[in-house]
Amino acid sequence: MRKIWFLYTPELGMMNVYLQSMAQDEFLIVVHLSSCPTDIEGAGRGAIAREDLEVGDIALEIPVSIIISEDLVHKTSMFPVLERVEGISSETMLLLWSMKEKHDINSKFKVYFDSLPEAFNTGLSFGMEAVMALDGTLLLEEIVQAKEHLRSQYNDLVPSLCNEHPDIFPPEVYTWDEFLWACELWYSNSMKVMFNDGKLRTCLIPIAGFLNHSISPHIMHYGRVDTATNSLKFPLTRSCRAGEQCYLSYGNLSASHLITFYGFIPKGENPYDVIPLDIDLSQVDSTEEAHPISNWSTHMVRGTWLSDNHGIFHYGLPSPLLEHLRQARTLMLQSNVTAQENLEIELEILEDLQSTFDAMMQNLGEIEPFSEQCDWDVKLALDFKGLQRRIISSIVTSCYSGRKLVENELHNCTNNG
Hints:
InterPro entries: SET_dom_sf, SETD3_SETD6_MTase. This protein has helices spanning 15-23, 71-74, 79-82, 90-101, 110-115, 128-133, 138-164, 176-189, 255-261, 319-333, 339-363, 376-416; strands at 4-7, 33-34, 47-49, 58-63, 190-194, 200-204, 225-226, 231-235, 274-280, 296-302. The chain is α+β, with helices and mostly antiparallel strands and 417 residues long. The strands form four sheets. A three-stranded mixed β-sheet has the order 2-1-3, with no helix packed on it. A three-stranded antiparallel β-sheet has the order 4-8-7, with no helix packed on it. A two-stranded antiparallel sheet has the order 5-6. A hairpin with a 5-residue loop joins strand 5 (190-194) and strand 6 (200-204).
């Protein structure tokens, strides 16, 4: 069986010993680990192929016996207490379990927990300066709401558990900082796995959780336990050359989601980075005889550089958005629409869109000077804001170029008419 070579920080030097002792005779592959401090593209973790791997090769295979899932909680003294908590999810139980297990020197998962970072540096840990640097973006509100939700969840659940069962939930272990750490652990490292009993569980998977994400991953399909081997296999869907980092797909995720729950922006052109545009068609100018339209419509607009069609009536913009706006204006005319009227409608649409996205750009404020000395969270916030500017700028440019195309066609139409 082929292998991948994992490179981590020094704390992970004993992970291979841990894996083999945990899995015992069930351990299916030998994974060579390097204990040397290595920083792969700034991530501080990653996996390098030791040899050429082809499509279909199994890059990694993990036995079920070392996967951390909700079954572990059921065997603890905290489960009878937690199962009486109304509405508590298995994921929350696991989160509370991991807070305590992390500090248990006799835990069979001690080496795994020791290998984890002291801070995950996700958007959930953004300081006030970083949050304010996001002013003008929807991510600011998303992060604030996520942080408020976690704080509310902690206040509603943890203090009462500590007061009523201090022997099971010691207050010195169940602090807010430890709760946030555990939340970030599960958000950034957990995977959904379908087990042989047909149940989908949220799990922590030693080793696999350290693979980095890419918008062009080598491994995409890995969420089902193999019944024959009782293991979780990670086959390649794209070849990986020796010495190349082997990437895993975390899912079809936008930069805003990856920042909030994972703490990074992926390299390359991410097709899932969009600007949401809410349109209230009731605000479109109309006459008294016009058909009343009052519904809201939401459209996701990507950077127009991702489109292959920038010609007239396309402009690199989403076709559903353009068609939606065209239909709304055509209905208001209540008559057969001439070619010239269609072009005039097209021009109005592009002018309105350009005005809307111009306002979005202004709302982002001035480009802030970047300093190498700024904190990690501020840098990440400014990088995201730069990405938003790039997307909006491409849309504005496409609207402007589209207007020129339509104006030229309208000029020809008028002259020929």
